[in-house]
Amino acid sequence: MTERELYLSAIEVLKRDGWCKEFLTNDRGQHCMLGAMDTAVNEAPFKAPLLFDLCGPSVTWFNDHCCQTINDAIAALEISADLAA
User: Fold this and answer.
1) What is the average pLDDT across 15-19?
2) pLDDT over 90 (residue 43)
3) Cβ partners under 8 Å of residue 65, min gap 6
4) Containing structural domain, residue 25
């Protein structure tokens, strides 16, 4: 899976399952950005340097403190996917 495919797959996971803060995956099956990427690759190791460049040193912090809605999380993943194209 390419980096771009990873981001696009994570977007589909968020749209399908929903988005959350504070957990990779919460008890309702919703995911944070990293949790969505984990799900997209079936928890295999992955690298997402463009997302880390965009979000700063912590995607988790960005997800929990900068994102207010699922649309914010998806926008960050879309920008990263565009940069990876």
Assistant:
1) 98
2) no
3) none
4) 3-84
